[in-house]
Amino acid sequence: MSITVPAPELTAFVQRIFEDVGSPPSEAAQVAEHLVGSNLRGHDSHGVIRTFGYVQQVRNGVLKPGAPMTIERETVSTALVSGGWNLGMPVAIQAMDLAIRKAKETGIAFVSMHEVGHIGRVGAYGDQAQREGLIAMGGVNSPGGRLVAAFGGSHRRTGTSPLMIAMPTANPDEPFILDMATSVVAEGKLKVAVNAQKPVPDGWILDGDGNPSNDARDFYGTGGNERQGTLLPVGGPDGGYKGFGLNLAVETLSGVLSGAGTSIEGTRGTNGVWFMALDPANFLPLEAFTAGLEDLIAFAKEPPLAPGFGEILVAGEPERRRMAQRLAQGIELDDETWRQINAAAEETGTAAPEMGWS
């Protein structure tokens, strides 16, 4: 079973939850808009399914809503910032704003961040930079979090270590935004599969004994095997050495450089983060860069197509199409995810919305 909720109503409900748990209204709005924005783009793993977990972190004293971001070290082109253990989205927005400002002044900037909650979909911050005419890169790790096996291993060693690359085109609403876990999928997609009681494809996970599995519960140790399983690095059983290499690189840049910690140890449920912003105008006119990128995309999309494919899509296009569809039709949530959101509302004393949805 499922419920379909219009995006504006869902955003308002989630915002009230974060206001009631202590976030200033402007920051609660940023969190809600980010979570619902992830659902709109088809990234349900980073959407409102996270609401209950974030509220629990506040209740447990891990996160401190409204805490200010502070700059601990700084040069003209770099910064190390602390999020003060605030929720991730408000701090990450400020950190990318800092990188944007520095890149416009110096041509390139690198901002490293620790002591911050889960920042959600890292591609959102790449979009923030490309709308200022900048190229952006970034990555995230999960200190103390182990979800992914090393290539050739069968037990958890690292996090999913997402990587982002964003580049502007002539239309700021149609950028190139690559946002990918360096595991086969984001761990949140397994949560979605468990909640929806659906199997996962071959090559995503191993169970607690190191055997391939299609039951997402085997990852969590809640299925027939009580031992926790593991995600595989992107590339799967054969090409996973590529994803494993990217995973360790992102883990290092995110966790070691920031001081947040790596998968070996750190505060669970938080992120180490790095953002880089680059001004292409220091190399050629922005219009020349965007024209070159658009020519390359058009060339890459030319037929002939492989059997079974009707067109070629590049990074960012599937998300834009899904967003248009869900804005028009609403966001479908499985019953368990909807139950968890309402459980978060009960904990914060937030009034549930009047149900007028299917």
Helix content: 25-40%
Mean of all residue-level pLDDT scores: 95
CATH fold-type name of the largest domain:
Ribosomal Protein S8, Chain: A, domain 1
Q: How many domain regions?
A: 3
Structural class: alpha+beta
Features:
single chain; 358 residues; alpha+beta; Hypothetical Oxidoreductase Yiak, Chain: A, domain 1; Ribosomal Protein S8, Chain: A, domain 1; 3 domains; seven-stranded mixed sheet; three-stranded antiparallel sheet; 11 helices; 14 strands; globular
Q: What features would you describe in this structure?
A:
The chain is α+β, with helices and mostly antiparallel strands. The protein folds into three domains: 1-68 and 320-358, Malate/L-lactate/L-sulpholactate dehydrogenase, four-helix barrel (Hypothetical Oxidoreductase Yiak, Chain: A, domain 1, Orthogonal Bundle), CATH 1.10.1530.10; 75-184 and 235-283, Ribosomal Protein S8, Chain: A, domain 1, CATH 3.30.1370.60; 193-231, no CATH class. 40% of the residues lie in helices and 19% in strands. The protein contains eleven helices and 14 strands. The protein has helices at 7-20, 25-40, 51-59, 88-106, 123-130, 187-196, 217-220, 236-256, 286-300, 317-329, 335-348; strands at residues 2-5, 70-74, 78-86, 108-117, 135-141, 148-149, 156-158, 163-167, 176-180, 205-206, 212-213, 230-231, 270-278, 331-334. The strands form four sheets. A seven-stranded mixed beta sheet has the order 2-3-4-13-5-8-9, with helices on both faces. Helix 1 (7-20) packs antiparallel against helix 2 (25-40). The mean pLDDT is 95.
